[in-house]
Amino acid sequence: MSGAIDLASGLGGKIEKKEIRSAVDQYEKYHGHFGGDEEARKANYTDMVNKYYDLSTSFYEFGWGESFHFAHRWKGESLRESIKRHEHFLALQLGLKPGMKVLDVGCGIGGPLREIARFSSASVTGLNNNDYQISRGKELNHLAGVHKTCDFLKADFMKMPIADNTFDAIYAIEATCHAPDALGCYKEIFRVLKPGQHFAAYEWCMTDAFDPNNQDHQRIKAEIELGDGLPDIRTTRKCLEALKLAGFEVIWEADLASESPVPWYLPLDTSHFSLSSFRLTSVGRFITKNLVKALEFIGLAPEGSQRVSSFLEKAADGLVEGGRKEIFTPMYFFLARKPLSQS
Ligand SMILES: C[S@@+](CC[C@H](N)C(=O)[O-])C[C@H]1O[C@@H](n2cnc3c(N)ncnc32)[C@H](O)[C@@H]1O
């Protein structure tokens, strides 16, 4: 029950409770289902993404935990184990060592940051443009005891208030998909990374199987964009091209979804049941939906909460369909290096 109360009280993040309904209206209007278009989403990405995370963060924490991402998963591995291993994999690829200064781009409430800091003893700075998530992250860093070596910076990853050549390593987990333009974002990351050092990321992408002329594929893409606060999901090819144009040497890249023995979307698949991730199953989601309805009815959750819960449901359905058809991946991985000399 305390989880449900936390869900209700955190709903809306830093938005005034009485403004939540209109924030939901404004958020929905950015998207194709409600008459919005890609240009407006790109031009207003800060407003759209901040509204999205103010409205959805407490649902994410309730259903998913402190790390807001999917994971490559082995048979016999629990969802939680796979999420941690997916984070450790980044630390290993980046060769993180004690004392290194690392940047987490689009850090959420800092679940990966805390895990990677404890795993590697590196100092991690979480960069995020959402005030509510940063305040949650700071509380959780204190509870985890990593507040002396890890911190947060409230900033836009398209224009970071950070000096050139600052970090020993940089990673981004399922975050730079929110950028209105991948090249602009990768160039900023390139600028603040020290020469000779590495950048690794998991990107949300449409795969080569995505056909832009197929209406069904377009519908699934639009559902994911609406349900996840995205301007336009890029293809893996576009991301790779942007990375090279930004100046990076690509060491290796792969869609890890195609190598995952347990499909990454399984926890959201309504035909699947799991006790350990019960809140994500169809029964768990049905209970959450009705719980939110009841909490909104008695005034414990703000007006508009049910609509947030339903666009998140749409997102889950779009993600599962996109995953099954292999037209979408949340784990296009790359490891890239900023050359020592930029000639
Ligand atoms: C799906 S969440 C992933 C969070 C985190 N990496 C994790 O795995 O738990 C995407 C994150 O990107 C952040 N974000 C989106 N656009 C941003 C921007 N322009 N500048 C900084 N952070 C941004 C959001 O606020 C959110 O925290």
Automatic annotation (TrEMBL):
Coiled coil regions in record: none
Molecular function GO terms recorded: sterol 24-C-methyltransferase activity
PROSITE patterns the record matches: SAM_MT_ERG6_SMT
Record-stated family: Belongs to the class I-like SAM-binding methyltransferase superfamily. Erg6/SMT family.
Gene Ontology CC terms: endoplasmic reticulum
EC number(s) per entry: 2.1.1.-
A Pfam short name: Methyltransf_11
UniProt enzyme class: transferase
GO BP of this protein: methylation; sterol biosynthetic process
Domain SAM-dependent methyltransferase Erg6/SMT-type, chain residue ranges per copy: 52-339
SUPFAM superfamilies: S-adenosyl-L-methionine-dependent methyltransferases
Pathway: Steroid biosynthesis; sterol biosynthesis
Keywords: Lipid biosynthesis, Lipid metabolism, Methyltransferase, S-adenosyl-L-methionine, Steroid biosynthesis, Steroid metabolism, Sterol biosynthesis, Sterol metabolism, Transferase
Protein name: Methyltransferase
Species in which this protein is naturally found: Acorus gramineus (Dwarf sweet flag)
Keyword Lipid biosynthesis among UniProt keywords: yes
